[in-house]
Each structure stands twice: as structure tokens, then as C-alpha cells.
Amino acid sequence: MFLHVLASYVPPHASAVGRTAVRMQLKPPPLPDFDTLKRLASLETQKELWSLSNELSKLALEQDPKVVVRRSIDLALAVQTVTTETISNKGLTPPSAEGVPLVLRRLCEEMGATYVKLGQFIASSPTLFPAEYVAEFQKCLDSTPPMAWEVVKEVIEEELGCPIASVYKHVETSPLASASIAQVHAATLLSGEEVVIKVQKVGVQASLRADLDLMFATSRVLEILLPTQEGFEQKGELSEIVGEIRRAILEEVDFNLEAQRTSQFADFLLTRPELQGVVTVPRVYPAASAARVLTLERLYGVSLTDLEAVRAYSATPELALITALNTWVSSVLYNEWFHADVHAGNLLILTDGRVAFIDFGIVGSIPPATASAMLDFVKCYASQDFDGLAAALAQMGFTKEGVDTRAFAVDLKEVLDSAQAMPIEELQEGVLDETQLNRLVASIAKVADGYGIRFPREFALLVKQVLYFDRYTRLLAPDLDILADERLMSNMPVVPAGGAGGPEDEGTRPPVTVEVEAS
Question: Residue 62: phi, psi to the nearest 5?
């Protein structure tokens, strides 16, 4: 319905595209049938509507009326802009099924931070959304103009409650980077330590909450007023997905949470003696951080895809990769959560040879039993152990009875073999195509769905990180035997849940020796 309105909407300045030829072609929605009316009148639905009314009232009371009005105007302007573009490019023909993802992606870009983040969520969730949407939203631009320095300075001083000169010796007025949610400035503390300051853009939190609450409220209303839709097996599944989107996006703008995660991961590294001195995360400066300002240690390093630069800082790139992989697998198995965005910009080799994980805005969490079963699944798949494959899937809890595991493995092999299609030369040039990875994860999900296996988003996040490491391995250690190399944590006995993370585990897991070359 919305797309039909969008396709036939006449912008105020539509004379350039032929105002007289454009008409609102809206038809009234069909009247509900008797079964629908009966369902809506039932006692159960009336209770649901009453509960929903209370739920929506609470959400409404939390909103700033000024923000709601402003976002309504923003929506109208975004629809006007995208409609004009669509008519100019495609004429008066409504968007085809293939063109709908493009129209929605442009609408998200015009609507700003919330919808850019929504687009990024869609792009990173190939198990939840159709492949054509995942591919299109991968192009979603996150390039809003930076705030003026005067505004940045005001935000920092307001959040820290003191003049900027009482915390920082120097702050670069031009940002190192700027996106829809925040921008980053290089700085030096009074103590002389080099840091980066992540400053949240003005008005972002209020807009995000208003937009996301509206999306969530709409999903709840649709679930009650409409019957179960195609693609959603159970009632409530739509609001669960929207709720997950809401939670994930709001977590990304919670700088206190990001600071907590960064510090917690540093604490986790301290529980792994084999990682001491070879892995790090940026130090958090709590006295210079707040809800909208995050001050972190500035780290200097290079991406894992820059092979020549990696060789300049690590005599054995293979060992650097093993260190990074062991750290990540260790967090999957033993930490509360794992880093769920280990793209080349978030995983660095520092100038002193250490591996650094940065940016903990996106994390995932799966039960220890599922994580252990995931490792078994990878091993059994590689060794063509179909009985083990079935057992691993059953342990993960994703299968239905009667799954033809052998046929599933054969189909899965065909999909995963396509992952090897990317030329090594492109990897050496630093090319790690996000779209290819998302399409691959989507293909895995599609094959699994055909066998009645449905993977949650957290599992998709985990699989995507595995694919990242697979490509890093092809570049840095093409001869590494990931199924047999004893230096890899995935080939070591898994410590039972409840016995992980401390020195007491050293008797059950041999230490990993990693050599690095200091610059």
C-alpha cells in the first residue's frame, strides 16, 4: 500500500515531470471479510488490543512532541524527494518488484540516521531479509556532513561538565571520520596520552527513539489487525524482528555501553594467559567519557588485508592471524559475547606487532553449547562426517525431525565452494566485498531453510565473522590447516561451561605461543 502511494504521489514542484499527467491513483482498501471481523471482535483480540493500547500509551509519553513533529516533516520531505527522483528516472510507471529495494534504500538515506542504521541492519542480516534487499541496502550511504567544531565543543563540555581545556591539551577541530551517528576527533589529554574522541551528533538519540518506537508500534498493530503474513511462521515474529532492530540500533548509540564492552573485553583478555601481550583493545578513559562522548586510546596499526604493511610489523603474518582467530573463538566460547563486526577496519595489526580489536558497537551472543556445536559443525562438514554434522545441527537446536543431513551437506558444499571464487589478487589489494559475504550468508540460510533449518540473526552474525576470517586466512596463511593445526583454539578440547576463562583452565588447554616483532 505504501509503495503504491509513493509511486503515484505528486510532489508540490512536479511541473518539471508533467503535473497534468500525474494523478493520485489510490483505491480504498477492501472491506474486511467476516472471518477477520470475527477475529477482531473476539475476547482474545480485545485483550490484545487493550494491552497494546497501554503499551503504545507508554511509548507516546516517552516522546518529545517537538521531535515527533520534526520527524513527520522529515518523512514528508523524504517521500517528496524520492518520489521526484523515481518519476524523473523511471517516468510514471510504479516501481517494479526489482526496483522496490532501490526506492526504499533511497528513502532510508533521505530520512537520516535511524533509517541509515536500519539499512545497515538489513544489509548485515541476510538470514532475515531477501537477498535483493540485502544487496541493495549494502549501498546505503552513511555520509552525513560533520558537525561544526563549535557544536562539537559544546557537546563535549556539556557532557563532561567542564571546560574542554581542563581535560584535553589539544583537540583537532577537523574530524578524522564522520557518519550518521557520530564523528571522531584526534586529541591529546593533559597527561600527554594520544586519544580519539567519539562525539555523538546532536539530536540523534531523540530521533532514533521516536523513529524506532514508531516502527515497533506499527509492527505490533499490524500483527493484531492482519492475519499471519507470508514469511512469518508464528504470530509475534514481525515485532520480534523489529524489536531486535530497535535494540541493536539503540545499543550502537549507547556510548556508556560501548565503553563498558570495551573495558569488559580487556578484562576478558586478562583471563587468557596465552593472549597476554599479543592482543589488545583501546583503553577507555572514563573521566573523559559520558553518554554522548567516548574517549579512547588512539591505536596505530594496519588492516589485516594490507599484506605488505602486516609484514612490516609482524615477522610471521600467519601467527598474527592465529592470534586474532584464537582471540575471537575464545570470546565465542568463553565470553558473554563476541565481536560481531571483524571487518578489516576493526581488526588491526599494530606497529608493535600486537593484534587489536576495536569498535564494539555490534556484538553477538550465543549459548556455550551452541558455540561448541558450531565448531563441531565446521569440523564435521570439512571432514564430510555426516553423522557428526547431524549431531551438531541437533545440538544447536535448529533442525526439525527427518532432515536429510547428507543432502543438506552436499548442497551446502556447493554454496561454500563459491566462496573460493574471489581471486587472491583482489584480497591482496585489500578488497573484501561486503556484498559478496552477505550474499554467501544469505545463500547458506536459503539452503538451510529448504531443509527446515532456520538460523537466528546471532548465528548469521557468527557465520559472517567466520567468513571474514576465512578470507584473512587465504591472504595471510594460505597453507594453514585449520582442521589440524594445534595452535588453533578450535582444534583444542573445549572447556565445559562454568570452567572457562581463568588460570585454573591451564591444565586443560595448552598455551599458544605467538611470536611478534617489535618495531
Answer: -85, -10
